[in-house]
Every structure is written in structure tokens, then in C-alpha cells.
Design brief:
alpha/beta; 8 helices; 5 strands; binds shikimate-3-phosphate
């Protein structure tokens, strides 16, 4: 089984940018689950939320997660950036358990909002509900995480190096 590192954390925590750099440092594959979902749907995530709704989005997200993890198991090592809400599906948590080491990129609400307020993310429209969602999700991230990295005071490059260090150790332990 190939080593797989999955990055979790709230919107704006840097899962995609950190994941891409860590994969580059490791010489591993990088996959962004949001991109996988959008490609499979043939539309953007905001379009999916608007047309089919969040439940349909979560269904497709789990389906793509299963497929991506199957492919990664046969590869040589991969970093996977999850969506901020992937772990809200119990099925996704089950799929990840045993298939990947989970690193939680922890960010506070102010910094997360500062980073995504002007993006087109469907769940980042209103500050109050954004902060409430972060507080609700925190327990999910903490329960699933094998490692936690607090990201708000660190550059992407240094978080990526920490992720790569964890990944190398994990790969060594796997044999
Ligand atoms: C979501 C986070 C987004 C994307 C979708 C829903 C969430 O991913 O999956 O907009 O529920 O937190 P990022 O965390 O990569 O922004």
C-alpha cells in the first residue's frame, strides 16, 4: 500500500497550496478533491451548490474520494487535499480511516475569513454562519486527525515542509 497523506481543515487553511508544495518536495502525486468533484460534475462547486444542493455535492464528494483513494493505494505516494467539509460525511471518515494519515491544518476564524471572504465559496458568504460552521467542524477535524499543524502564523512553505517531514516518517514506518 502506498503512503497517502490527506490534508483536512477549514476553508482557507491552505490545504491546496500546502498540499501541492508538500507533494512537490516529496516527489509524490497531488490531488485536490474539490477539483476532482468539479471535473466529475462538469461544473463549478458554486454551480453545484446552487443547482443540486449540498447533499448532492457531498454524495459526489464521497464517490470521488473512494475512487481517488483506490487509485492512490496502487501509486507510489500521494498528498490529497480534502474539502473543508469532507469529514462531515461519516462515510468519508470511514473511507479515510486506514487509507491515509490525516493532517489537520488548524486556523482561527478571523484569519480563515480574511483569506476566503472574497472567494466564491458557497459556504463563505456570511461571516456569522462561517464562524459558526468552523466551530461546529472543529470537533470533526480533531477527532479524525493523526497530526495537527497550526497554520495562521506560518508561511505556506514552512507548513509544507512540516507536512513533508510527517509524510516521510509515515512512509518509512509503512516500510
Ligand atoms: C466546503 C469547502 C470547500 C468546498 C466546498 C464546501 C466546506 O473546499 O469543498 O465549497 O463545506 O467547507 P475548501 O476547504 O478547499 O475551500
Amino acid at each position: 500500500m502506498a503512503p497517502v497523506i490527506a490534508l483536512t481543515g477549514f476553508m482557507g487553511s491552505g490545504k491546496t497550496s500546502v498540499g501541492r508544495q508538500a507533494a512537490w518536495l516529496l516527489g509524490w502525486d497531488f490531488v485536490d478533491l474539490d477539483v476532482e468533484v468539479a471535473v466529475a460534475a462538469g461544473k463549478t462547486i458554486p454551480e453545484m451548490f446552487a443547482n443540486e444542493g449540498e447533499v448532492a455535492f457531498r454524495r459526489l464528494e464521497c464517490e470521488r474520494l473512494r475512487a481517488v483513494l483506490e487509485t492512490m493505494a496502487d501509486g507510489t505516494g500521494a498528498v490529497l487535499a480534502l474539502g473543508g467539509g469532507t469529514l462531515s460525511s461519516p462515510e468519508a471518515v470511514d473511507l479515510l480511516r486506514g487509507a491515509a494519515t490525516l493532517i489537520y491544518l488548524e486556523i482561527n476564524a478571523d484569519e480563515a475569513w480574511r483569506r476566503v471572504a472574497r472567494s466564491d465559496r458557497p459556504l463563505a458568504r456570511d461571516r456569522r454562519s462561517f464562524v459558526a460552521l468552523l466551530e461546529n467542524r472543529r470537533a470533526l477535524y480533531e477527532a479524525a486527525a493523526d497530526h495537527v499543524i497550526a497554520v495562521e502564523d506560518q508561511a505556506v512553505a514552512s507548513v509544507a515542509r512540516l507536512v513533508a517531514d510527517i509524510a516521510r516518517k509515515y512512509a518509512r514506518d509503512l516500510g
